[in-house]
UniProtKB/TrEMBL annotation:
This is Mandelate racemase/muconate lactonizing enzyme family protein. Coiled coil: none annotated. It comes from Salinirubellus salinus. InterPro entries: DgoD-like, Enolase-like_C_sf, Enolase-like_N, Enolase_C-like, Mandelate_racemase_C, Mandelate_racemase_N_dom. Pfam families: MR_MLE_C (PF13378), MR_MLE_N (PF02746). The lineage of its organism: Archaea, Methanobacteriati, Methanobacteriota, Stenosarchaea group, Halobacteria. Residues 145-243 form the Mandelate racemase/muconate lactonizing enzyme C-terminal domain.
C-alpha cells in the first residue's frame, strides 16, 4: 500500500450565471468577484494499483501550486504507506512558509486510497455516519436587494433552510439587502452574513445592531474583522445579541484556541483544506466540542472530490451541528462522473469505498489549465 506516483493537475471550471437555476455568477464576495474557479486535482497510486483522489486550492497560481507539489509535498508522500497520515502531516513544519493546503490535498487522496483498500467508505474511518442526508446552506454573493429577495424566495421553495451571503462593501446596502431577504420569506429562512475580514469594528457593530433592530436575527455573523483580532471579537460579542463566528481565523494555528480562551465567539466555520486536512480538522473538533461552539464547514466552489470528503466528515462528526456551506451545484462542470445533486436542500452521503466518487480522468484532462502542463512523477520501489 505504498504510494508510488503522484499527479497534481490544475483545472478551471466556469460558474453558472445567476440567470440559471442554482447559478451564482458573477459571485461578488467583498472585494473579489468570481466567474470561474481554479482547483488542483491530486491523484496518487499505490504499489497494489489502488488510485486515491484529493482536491485542493490553486494559490496564488498554477505554477506555484505545481512547484510546491513537485519539490515540497510530493517527495514526502512517495514511498509512504497510505495509512501513514500522521507522520506525513508532521513532515511539514515550515514556520515561514504556508503549505498546509497542498498537504491537505494529498492527505485527502491518502484517505480515499485507504478506504478503497479496506473497502469501506470514508465516514466509517471517521467514526461512522450519523445521517444519510446532509442539509446544506445555499450561498449567494452580493446583489441588489430585489434580486437577493427573489433568490431567497427561490431557495425556500427548493427546500433550503439557511442562506449564506457576503457583505462588507457598504453598511447601508448590507442592511437593506438582508432585510429585504428576511421579509421576502416572512422570516422562514436563517441567514449567515460573511464579512470576509472587510469591516472595521464600528462597521461590524453597526451592521449587526441595525439588523437586530429590523428583526433580522442571523444564525451567525462570520469573520467581519480581520484575523488576530481577539479583543475586537470579544467586544463585538459583548455588545451584540447576534452570534459571532470566525472562518479565516481557524486556518491559523492556535487562533481558535485564543478566541475560545477569551470567550470571544459563538461558532467556528472550518475548512479542511486551509486547516491542513481531514485529520487536522478532526483535531479542531475536540476544541470546539469542549468549548461548546457551533461548527459549520466552509465552501470555496469545491469540485465533487472535496465535496464528497466534506459530506463524509460532516455526517460522521458530532461537533458539526450546523449545515455546511456548499456551492458546487453552481459549477458548470465537474471532474466526478456522477455529480452531487441537491434535493430538498440536502445532499446524500456517498457509501462507496473511500470518498465514494469516481473521477473522470478524461474530464480532468479536458479542464486542465496552463498549456496542458501538470506535474507528475513516480518512484520505483
Amino acid at each position: 500500500m505504498q504510494i508510488t506516483s503522484l499527479e497534481a493537475t490544475p483545472v478551471q471550471v466556469e460558474i453558472r450565471s445567476r440567470e440559471e437555476p442554482y447559478g451564482v455568477a458573477p459571485y461578488v464576495a467583498g472585494y473579489h468577484t468570481f466567474e470561474h474557479v481554479l482547483r488542483l486535482v491530486v491523484r496518487i497510486e499505490t504499489d497494489d494499483d489502488v488510485v486515491g483522489w484529493g482536491e485542493t486550492m490553486v494559490d496564488p497560481e498554477p505554477n506555484v501550486a505545481r512547484a510546491v507539489m513537485e519539490h515540497v509535498v510530493g517527495p514526502e508522500a512517495l514511498g509512504r504507506e497510505v495509512w501513514e497520515v500522521e507522520s506525513f502531516l508532521d513532515s511539514f513544519e515550515y514556520p515561514y512558509m504556508h503549505v498546509r493546503p497542498y498537504v491537505a490535498g494529498v492527505e485527502m487522496a491518502m484517505w480515499d486510497a485507504l478506504g478503497k483498500t479496506k473497502d469501506v467508505p470514508l465516514h466509517q474511518l471517521f467514526g461512522g455516519k450519523r445521517m444519510d442526508e446532509v442539509p446544506i446552506a445555499y450561498c449567494l454573493g452580493i446583489t441588489d436587494p430585489e434580486e437577493a429577495a427573489e433568490q431567497a424566495r427561490w431557495a425556500r421553495e427548493e427546500g433550503f433552510g439557511v442562506i449564506k451571503t457576503k457583505s462588507g462593501l457598504d453598511v447601508d446596502a448590507d442592511v437593506e439587502r438582508l432585510t429585504a431577504m428576511h421579509e421576502a420569506v416572512d422570516g422562514d429562512l436563517k441567514f449567515r452574513l460573511d464579512g470576509n475580514q472587510t469591516m472595521s469594528y464600528g462597521e461590524a457593530t453597526e451592521t449587526a445592531a441595525r439588523l437586530e433592530a429590523n428583526g433580522v436575527y442571523l444564525q451567525y455573523f462570520e469573520q467581519p474583522l480581520r484575523t488576530d483580532s481577539v479583543g475586537g471579537y470579544t467586544r463585538l460579542r459583548q455588545r451584540l445579541r447576534t452570534p459571532i463566528a470566525v472562518n479565516e481565523d481557524t486556518y491559523h494555528r492556535r487562533n481558535l484556541f485564543e478566541l475560545v480562551r477569551e470567550d470571544a465567539i459563538d461558532a467556528a466555520v472550518v475548512d479542511m483544506v486551509p486547516v491542513g486536512g481531514l485529520l487536522a480538522t478532526k483535531k479542531l473538533m475536540g476544541l470546539c466540542d469542549e468549548a461548546n461552539l457551533s461548527v459549520a464547514h466552509h465552501s470555496s466552489f469545491d469540485l465533487g472530490i472535496k465535496n464528497a470528503a466534506v459530506l463524509h466528515f460532516v455526517a460522521s462528526e458530532p461537533a458539526m451541528d450546523l449545515p455546511p456551506d456548499r456551492v458546487n451545484y453552481a459549477l458548470a462542470d465537474d471532474v466526478v462522473e456522477e455529480r452531487f445533486e441537491v434535493t430538498d436542500g440536502c445532499m446524500s452521503v456517498p457509501d462507496g469505498p473511500g470518498l465514494g466518487v469516481e473521477v473522470d480522468e478524461k474530464k480532468v484532462e479536458a479542464l486542465r489549465v496552463t498549456e496542458g502542463k501538470g506535474i507528475s512523477y513516480e518512484v520505483t520501489l
